[in-house]
Amino acid sequence: ITNGAIYALIALGFTFPYTSIGLVNLPHGYVFITGAVLSATLLSTAGVDESASFARNVPAMLVVLLIVMGACGLLSAVIEIVAYRPLSNAPRLSRLVTSIGILFILNNIIIIWTGSKPVALPDLLPRGDVFSVMGVAYTWDKLIVLLSMALVLASLYLVLEQTRLGTSIRAAIQDSVGAQLVGVNVARTVTLAFFLAGALAGAGGQLYALYFTNVSWDQALRLTLIAFTAVVLGGIESLVGAVIGAMIIGITESFVNGFEWYSPGSNWTESVVLSVLIILLVFRPQGLLGEEPQLG
């Protein structure tokens, strides 16, 4: 469930761009890893002390969180303005190729930044047991990640449903032409949607760094594939579907990795996850909560 919560924050970032401009924003996973590396770097630079209590480190973590969310949001918005907006009337294949190019650029920047070495940070989350079910302990670090994800999703819901910005984003997603007719600046709204997706990636990146305490550039591709699988599994146009798909993948991973005699083992994790996706798509091509396309 904890892994699923982290995947959900990445998966939501795929849904926003797709519903806004019909594009799978492949560099989004690398924006996520950028947030994780930046979080680890800033927290290490700030000199947070793992021997101190969790409460004493919370202010520093919150400040870093705001910086990382802003930086990743700006990065995602710049990608939209520089790479995607000039191709708004181009074929989708052109934009897809552009997104692949941006992916490699970000990958190389992260490699140069980290020197191809993992970035480690102190173990700042408490690891004690919260409760135990059938001999399996659920620890504080997992609970904090899960509650943080729930808080981020609640904030996202409030932004989309209760603010003028959220109304503009939903209007532009549902009918861009109609939104323009009533005075919505669709281009600016799409940029804001990308910023929001990047901010979510930044929040997820910090949670990922705090939970695993070790971030490497080569994790980006795997996380991108898993999050995209979650989006397709849940329905690529559904925010709730993306979260459900991520949770299903997280639980499936735990089953494959955590049970001994009747699971195939961790080497088969990606194969099992993709097999679940293929089986579902055979019977429900639009995903769990996706809408069936209307012909005619």
Write the layout of secondary structure elements.
Blueprint: H1 2-21, H2 28-45, H3 54-84, H4 92-114, E1 119-120, E2 129-133, E3 136-139, H5 140-162, H6 164-174, H7 176-181, H8 186-212, E4 214-215, H9 219-234, H10 239-258, H11 269-283
Antiparallel strand pairs: 1-4, 2-3
Keywords:
296 residues; mainly alpha; 11 helices; 4 strands; 4% strand; globular
CA-atom Rg in angstroms: 19 Å
The share of residues in extended strands comes to under 5%
The spatial strand order of the largest sheet comes to 1-4
Largest sheet: 2 strands, antiparallel
Number of beta-strand segments = 4
Class from helix and strand fractions: mainly alpha
Task: Bin the helical content.
Answer: over 70%
Categorize the overall geometry: globular
Spatial gap, N to C terminus? 41 Å
Quote the average pLDDT. Answer: 83
In the predicted model, the low-confidence regions spanning at least 5 consecutive residues are none
Order of helix and strand elements from N to C terminus: HHHHEEEHHHHEHHH
Count of alpha and pi helical runs: 11
Short précis:
This protein is mainly alpha-helical. The protein is built from eleven helices and four strands; from the N terminus they run H-H-H-H-E-E-E-H-H-H-H-E-H-H-H.
Tell me what the structure shows:
The structure is a single chain. This protein has 296 residues and is mainly α. It is built from 11 helices and 4 strands. The chain has a two-stranded antiparallel ribbon with strand order 1-4. The protein has a two-stranded antiparallel ribbon with strand order 2-3. A hairpin with a 2-residue loop joins β2 and β3. α1 crosses α9 and α2 packs across α9. The longest helix has 31 residues.
